[in-house]
Write a structure and sequence with these properties.
Blueprint: H1 3-19, H2 25-40, H3 46-56, H4 62-74
């Protein structure tokens, strides 16, 4: 994984954790990585991204998926 990708992943995970301080760091990072892959594939709509994340990781829960999706679609780093 490139430094740029690592930075984007860290930024999305951190933004999600600021929005939901109860979000475990491991979950934030896992979902951020998945979210960035979907964003790279052209998914830019936070609700659609949250649905994809929840489908792939139902154990994370809808709240975690939604917070990470919002972070990934609003983060400038996610466009890298």
């Amino acid at each position: 994984m490139s430094d740029l990708t690592e930075n984007a992943l860290d930024a999305v995970a951190a933004q999600a954790q600021r929005a939901d301080p109860g979000l475990p760091p491991e979950t934030a990072r896992l979902l951020a990585g998945e979210a960035l892959l979907h964003v790279a594939d052209g998914v830019r709509d936070a609700p659609e991204l949250a649905r994809l994340l929840l489908a792939d990781h139902p154990e994370a829960g809808a709240s975690a998926a939604a917070v990470v999706a919002r972070a990934a679609t609003s983060s400038p780093e996610s466009s890298t």
